[in-house]
Amino acid sequence: MFWGGLQNLFGFRSFAPSRKRYHLAFTATKDPVTKYLNRPEERETQLGSDHFPEIIWSNGYVPDPGAEVLAHFEDGSAALLTNSVGKGKVYLLGLSLLDVVLRNQNNRDYEAQRHYVNAFEPGADVWLLVLRAWYEAYGKDWVRLSTIPGGQRSALLLSHDVDWENSFAPGLDFARIEKANQASSTFFIQTKYVDDANSKAFFFAPKIDLLRQLKTSGSTVGSHSIIHSRGFNKFELGSGYETYSSYQPRGLGFDTASGATVFGEVRVSKELLDGEIPGQDTIFFRAGHLRVPISLPEALERSGYQFDSSFTADDVLSNFPFALPRDLGFEEDSEIYEFPVTIEDEESPGFAKRVPQALQVILANAENGAVSVVLIHSNESILKAAAEQDLLRQLPSDIIKTDMLTFAKFWRARDRLQWSLTATSVPTEAVLQVKSAEPVTGLTFEFQRPIATVTGGATMFPDNRHIVLPELAPGHSVSIHINYLH
Ligand SMILES: [Zn+2]
Fold this sequence. Notes:
Layout: H1 7-10, E1 12-18, E2 23-26, H2 40-43, E3 44-46, E4 58-63, E5 68-73, E6 78-85, E7 88-93, H3 97-105, H4 125-138, E8 143-145, E9 154-162, H5 168-180, E10 186-189, H6 207-216, E11 220-223, E12 250-251, E13 257-258, H7 262-276, E14 284-285, H8 296-302, E15 307-308, E16 322-325, E17 333-338, E18 343-344, H9 355-367, E19 371-375, H10 383-394, E20 399-403, H11 404-415, E21 418-423, E22 429-435, E23 444-447, E24 451-454, E25 459-460, E26 466-468, E27 477-484
Parallel strand pairs: 9-10, 9-19, 9-20, 10-11, 14-15, 15-17, 18-19
Antiparallel strand pairs: 1-4, 2-3, 2-5, 5-6, 6-7, 8-23, 12-13, 16-17, 21-22, 22-27, 23-26, 24-27, 25-26
Helix pairs in contact: 5-6, 5-10, 9-10
Zinc ion binds at residues 161, 163, 224, 228, 288.
């Protein structure tokens, strides 16, 4: 479009490339593509920290008088503009989605986040929300596969990190309180079997008995590495043959270690958890201190994991789960899905005093159909479990409260779903065909056109626009006949 002949179509007179534009603000406008951007954190975003002399490339446009500016950079140039041509409209964005979505998610951004954790940071999500709104504004008879099961608005995913010998017993208190509030959680367990400079070994009886109790009481279990090193992000990948009998890692200090590899931390912790807990198949990982080596997706994939929760949502500017790129690069996705941490318990003044703030972040994500992940260390259960119960009781009823593993399995099946909507010879009828490789419950479709009836065991919501599918058996194709109201 930089060829002069297309300037009239896109509605600009000139453009200027730069790596020195750090802020973007959406303009007050009725244009439908910005309809989801209602909060201040969505109306303005940061593209990179001004500590860097140069950040991502942007094109700032000088618009034609007839074009409408939907967002501008801090130098006044247009970042997003639209131009009406006949019956149609064109949109022009002066940024690459690779830079404002993927670069944030693989954490190769120029520190674009405004907070590290515990705040609402939708800097990457806004572009996905613009695309969603664009599809809904201009798609004819559009259909969307909802991000949340059961026609609900959002999901609160609960987790605990067990990274100290005295964190096992209070875990049972959390599990009990969650059960009493119709919730559940995932416990990420450090399987520390060596003494080192950071702590003594603790992964043996009676801790393992407590862990088995957690599992039988309905909690799910993930790995939180072995030595929980702050230097994990600098570890070598390792051979992939690391095993309990020969892997002898040791923390030498806060962020240094000997004999430790990424494979060792990931693979041997799984080996121990799977071996010690009846019925356990460890497929969820969270790194100690949330330090992420670029080889983590590969080590997780090759060790049989499916899910990770080692980033913060603010740091990756994303509140939707996403496929973790291989090598945290730009070329291809790994098979691992990332569920970044939204709320944690350690930042001052502590989780118990931040419940109202946490609730606001959860509600902001719920507006977008995004999720919120809560991490509470189970080192004590008097203050923190009471605070968690307080949060659960204030949660609106259309926000699901569940453990991370259950939601992650839903997300994986949803992401891999094969589906199509086919028109029939009758204008008010269509057929939705759905096939899932994995068992999945609660898949929800949203329709632009109001529906009168559905078949195939699907449930229609009172708004006539959402249908919830019955449980799908793996590998089976299901056909659902849709009758529109008119
Ligand atoms: Zn930890």
